[in-house]
Amino acid sequence: MKQNLRSKEVTNLSDVVRLDKLPEKAIIPMRQHDGIACAPLVKKGEAVIVGQKLGECEGSDLAYVHSPFCGTVDSIELMPNPSGKRILSVVLTPSECAQSVDFVPEKNAPPSRLIQIIKEAGIVEYYEKPTYLALKPGKRIDTLLMNATFPLITHAYLNSLDKVLEGFRLMLEASGIPRGVIVVRADDKESIKAFKSAKVDGKPLTVAPIIGKRHADYYLEDVEDQIIVVAAGNITYTPTMMNLLSANVMGRKLPLGGEPSDAHVVVCGVKSAKAVYDAICEGKPYLENVVTVKGAVNNPKSVIVRFGTPIKDVIEACGGYKGEPGKIIVNGSMGGITVYTDEAPIVKNTTGIVVQTKEQVLRDVTSACIHCARCVDACPVNLLPTRIASYSDLGKYEECEHLYAMNCIECGSCAMVCPSKRHLVQLIRYSKLQIQNMCTAEARGGD
Ligand code: SF4
Ligand code: SF4
């Protein structure tokens, strides 16, 4: 396991600032999750206020979009997006007015209403699934895991830990899941210290290390607590590593191609727990997130940013570029996506920005595979990266599927060790997309 690859991320970036300066233009995409796009509810020239619903849709996999700003609708058009695509967006000219819709808290609502509030608030998990759907997968679930293994994100919320914990408790109440496990990295001393001094329902939290084969189940059998915290290894579990998170923390093996709910587990994030608190206890829809900014900027820091704010404004809040920017990567340098413009906005699943200067950008020349098998040795989930990438290159996606390409967690370890500098992750990721498209076409009847 390449745990050391990620241990470097525990750096001190706990300097969190709120970006209050209004952007010249806010770009609010009508789709900010992996699901149905919303239809705009506003027209060009219309005035909007904070919290107003801007986009709505029908179906089972939806996340409504609300306005984080007061302002006027400039246009509704295809705009750049951190996903690399151009997405239909409401473009606003924000104004200083602080008017908002009425935020109505409903803390004592029954569970079915709590789920409805989470849905109405448009809350989305860090792996792009709407939270209301993630909490109700239609299977027997006994544990809700909170992935707090992104130290910089977790640190940014330590000042409001009581709200995060209450949001997590409300998620349990809304979903009927009997118990919750908060997972932190074992080397994240700052978060462990904060959780040790936190309380839920007036009782101190149980904070335990996961050692050897003892998994969270081991502690849950021992205590009557509804929520415990476990320190599990030095891995940051990215969105593609949820199965590994469930297996490592709960000790429950997942079937190939399965998902955490197949092991009776649901995963949520720290941000969504805070957003659930805001929605239920303060009546606010999902309007902002913490984004960590690292790399070639003058003052790296964590910034609380309203959705729709262009990346360039966030960079400016971090003192601007340090040197000539060569690459802007959204959501991590290992598995993130390079954006082609800093005009692209911060959206619901944006967790971080890494800037590289022109000199830092690797421009390796790819050569033929020399069959050294280093990528095979490096793969933490025992795949054959070279074989999958070759089939992907040839457009043979069924073969990629047979080699379990969908189990790739996009960690980048194979590409890092490849002496031929092959674009293994990109090819494997592309094959995953094609496999998904094949499955969707099959479900629709082979169109
Ligand atoms: S194939 Fe490469 S990117 Fe995918 S899990 Fe294995 S090492 Fe990581
Ligand atoms: S590490 Fe690179 S060169 Fe070696 S087998 Fe894998 S793809 Fe081929």
Automatic annotation (TrEMBL):
[4Fe-4S] cluster 2 binds at C379, C408, C411, C414. Residues 359-389, 399-430 form the 4Fe-4S ferredoxin-type domain. GO terms for biological process: electron transport chain. The keyword Membrane applies. Keywords: 4Fe-4S, Cell membrane, Electron transport, Iron, Iron-sulfur, Membrane, Metal-binding, Repeat, Translocase, Transport. Its cofactor is [4Fe-4S] cluster. InterPro entries: 4Fe4S_Fe-S-bd (IPR017896), 4Fe4S_Fe_S_CS (IPR017900), Ion_transpt_RnfC/RsxC (IPR010208), Ion_transpt_RnfC_Methano (IPR049684), Nuo51_FMN-bd (IPR011538), Nuo51_FMN-bd_sf (IPR037225), RnfC_N (IPR026902), Soluble_ligand-bd (IPR019554). Its EC number is 7.-.-.-. It is found in: Cell membrane. It is a peripheral membrane protein. Binds 2 [4Fe-4S] clusters per subunit. GO terms for cellular component: plasma membrane. It holds the Pfam family SLBB. PROSITE patterns: 4FE4S_FER_1 (PS00198), 4FE4S_FER_2 (PS51379). Transmembrane segments: none annotated. [4Fe-4S] cluster 1 binds at C369, C372, C375, C418. HAMAP family: RsxC_RnfC. PANTHER family: ION-TRANSLOCATING OXIDOREDUCTASE COMPLEX SUBUNIT C (PTHR43034:SF2). Part of a membrane-bound complex that couples electron transfer with translocation of ions across the membrane. Belongs to the 4Fe4S bacterial-type ferredoxin family. RnfC subfamily. The Rnf complex is probably composed of eight subunits, including RnfA, RnfB, RnfC, RnfD, RnfE and RnfG. This is Ion-translocating oxidoreductase complex subunit C. It comes from Methanosarcina horonobensis HB-1 = JCM 15518. The gene is rnfC.
